[in-house]
């Protein structure tokens, strides 16, 4: 593992390493105590006070995965984070995956994931899985809408490196489904863990707000919604938003 006191982005650092050494082995990890320009989904920044949380990136080489199945890596990473947190938090049933791969405890975000892929032909060459886990943060800026952390939930600080080791162990277990071509099991478990999986909930697309039920998450990663009148629509990540309030 490469442990840096500070870096702009662990994903970017790992990507730069791959330019220098294209044969960098799978399961190389870059972790930092202070990520100064962490990135989230849709270009959002990732907030994490120095030394309190987990910000790291993992290199995988899932060359057996077709480009059209790359969302399996998102499922893998989200489930690894959820199962890791389920072992240490009370009321583990409150944990869920907010599509595509944020981890929620109740209605509050406790982890985020940013995945970047490189392709060779029609298959993946490598994947960089960037993970941010809110561990020992005790106070958040008011501009963040709904964050929480392990410390806030438990009421005391915890050993973040122990949580990191648990995460990697979970990821290795889930990765077997990729290697053994049983990723359909990842899909089943992912669907069971989806945030607001049951019932109708408010969403917003380019045409406005509407209520819908989650019907599925397709192999492409698109969210399939069904409205009360039976109409179905599928959305890529940036095409749809949850209405959280």
Automatic annotation (TrEMBL):
Organism: Porphyromonas gulae
Molecular function per GO: biotin--[biotin carboxyl-carrier protein] ligase activity
UniProt keyword annotation of Ligase present: yes
Pfam family, one: BPL_LplA_LipB
GO annotation, cellular component aspect: cytoplasm
UniProt cross-references to InterPro entries, sorted A to Z: aa-tRNA-synth_II/BPL/LPL (IPR045864), Biotin_CoA_COase_ligase (IPR004408), BPL_LPL_catalytic (IPR004143)
SUPFAM superfamilies named in the record: Class II aaRS and biotin synthetases (SSF55681)
Lineage of origin: Bacteria, Pseudomonadati, Bacteroidota, Bacteroidia, Bacteroidales
Domain BPL/LPL catalytic residues, every copy: 1-179
Top-level taxonomic group: Bacteria
Keywords: Ligase
Signal peptide (from-to): none
Protein name, per record: Biotin--acetyl-CoA-carboxylase ligase
